[in-house]
């Protein structure tokens, strides 16, 4: 009896960075490109998934770790079905993020911009609310963000446009398929 090699699983990109850095925007742009090529792709936006599936989670370190672990479990399920997964989540604590990334053998991408740029962008008004004290434990203002130490890709969205960032992400994916 001949054994065949198991099919290669598609990659998981884990986009991490502060609110407003461009994680979801880039994930959606890559998703659009992959679908145009006929490839199955799913975006798991940390805020959207949390609100829909586990709104009971708060923003303590433990709740943030639970959110990341659950996102990782969802990503693993999609991946097992042959779907490329793009996770867009702040995931502020390095140890929780690294556990899930290691388990998934995911490619960590740091989507980065200086805090002053993010506060100017502030599409949801979150930084202003955090500065006023309305949002306690807000990552980057009153709660820590631990950046990746060795990401597969570091995108500085204050210096590089969406098209160039998308192209870099697609090259990274293509190199790992």
Automatic annotation (TrEMBL):
<feature type="domain" description="APS kinase">
    <location>
        <begin position="12"/>
        <end position="155"/>
    </location>
</feature>
<keyword id="KW-0067">ATP-binding</keyword>
<keyword id="KW-0547">Nucleotide-binding</keyword>
<comment type="function">
    <text>Catalyzes the synthesis of activated sulfate.</text>
</comment>
<keyword id="KW-0597">Phosphoprotein</keyword>
<comment type="pathway">
    <text>Sulfur metabolism; hydrogen sulfide biosynthesis; sulfite from sulfate: step 2/3.</text>
</comment>
<dbReference type="InterPro" id="IPR050512">
    <property type="entry name" value="Sulf_AdTrans/APS_kinase"/>
</dbReference>
<keyword id="KW-0418">Kinase</keyword>
<dbReference type="InterPro" id="IPR027417">
    <property type="entry name" value="P-loop_NTPase"/>
</dbReference>
<dbReference type="GO" id="GO:0004020">
    <property type="term" value="F:adenylylsulfate kinase activity"/>
</dbReference>
<dbReference type="Pfam" id="PF01583">
    <property type="entry name" value="APS_kinase"/>
</dbReference>
<dbReference type="InterPro" id="IPR002891">
    <property type="entry name" value="APS"/>
</dbReference>
<keyword id="KW-0808">Transferase</keyword>
<protein>
    <recommendedName>
        <fullName>Adenylyl-sulfate kinase</fullName>
        <ecNumber>2.7.1.25</ecNumber>
    </recommendedName>
</protein>
<dbReference type="InterPro" id="IPR059117">
    <property type="entry name" value="APS_kinase_dom"/>
</dbReference>
<comment type="similarity">
    <text>Belongs to the APS kinase family.</text>
</comment>
<feature type="binding site">
    <location>
        <begin position="17"/>
        <end position="24"/>
    </location>
    <ligand>
        <name>ATP</name>
    </ligand>
</feature>
